[in-house]
Structure formats: C-alpha cells, structure tokens
Design brief:
Blueprint (H helix, E strand, L loop, with lengths): L1 H11 L8 H9 L7 E6 L5 H11 L3 E6 L8 E2 L2 E5 L1 H5 L17 H7 L3
Parallel strand pairs: 1-2, 2-4
Antiparallel strand pairs: 3-4
Helix pairs in contact: 1-5, 2-3
Length: 117
C-alpha cells in the first residue's frame, strides 16, 4: 500500500518552484518523523544537494536520490545512494493516453498509479 501511495504521489507531481531548494529542505525537515527515509527525486544534481543530504543524514534521516535527468549520475553522494532512473524514464511513451490497446508489458502498474484508464 505504501508503494502505491508513493507512486500515486509521484505521478501527480509537477515542477513547481516557489522557493530555493535548500529553503524547502530546511522547512520540510522539521515536519518529518525521526528515522524517516527521505528520497530526493531530481533531474538536476545541483551544488546544494550534497550539503542538504548531509544535513538530513546528520539529523537522523536515511537518504537516497532518484536521478531522473539525462546523462550519467554518481553512484553515491555522501552516504546517499543514487539510483539513475533517467534511462528507464526514456523508455516510457510520451503520453500513455495514446495507447490504442492494452499497455505494453510492464506499464500497467505505472498507468494504475497515475489513474489513467
């Protein structure tokens, strides 16, 4: 159930910038339960990310990075593993609503998580 909820939340997310990323991290860190795992999903590995990952780690949170950008990504930033999902995203169709028949194998969970029928 947690995976489904996470995928649904990610499927509904859209880029929306209202503040500098370090400010968002600082504000949200106080709202998380101690011991939570924080997963940073980003398409750009900015200079501030290693510092913020370290702050979260030193505050008792486990951290991971899902890199959704183009190109190579480091295997690790500090203590946080980096998972490069960019190549997987490149394999997805531009618009899943264009499928005429059943979705390609392996795409049904993505569609289900996005609420597309």
């Amino acid at each position: 159930q947690q995976l489904t909820m996470t995928l649904e939340a990610l499927a509904m997310s859209a880029p929306y910038v209202v503040s500098m990323l370090p400010n968002v991290f600082r504000a949200e860190r106080d709202n998380l339960p101690l011991g939570a795992t924080v997963i940073f999903v980003t398409a750009a590995l900015t200079d501030s990310i290693p510092e913020q990952l370290l702050v979260f780690s030193e505050s008792g949170y486990r951290t991971s990075v899902l890199f959704a950008g183009d190109g190579d990504a480091p295997r690790q930033i500090g203590n946080a593993p980096v998972i490069n999902i960019g190549p997987l995203l490149d394999q997805l169709p531009e618009d899943v609503t264009d499928w005429q028949d059943d979705p390609p194998a392996g795409q049904a969970p993505l569609i289900e998580a996005r609420g597309v029928e």
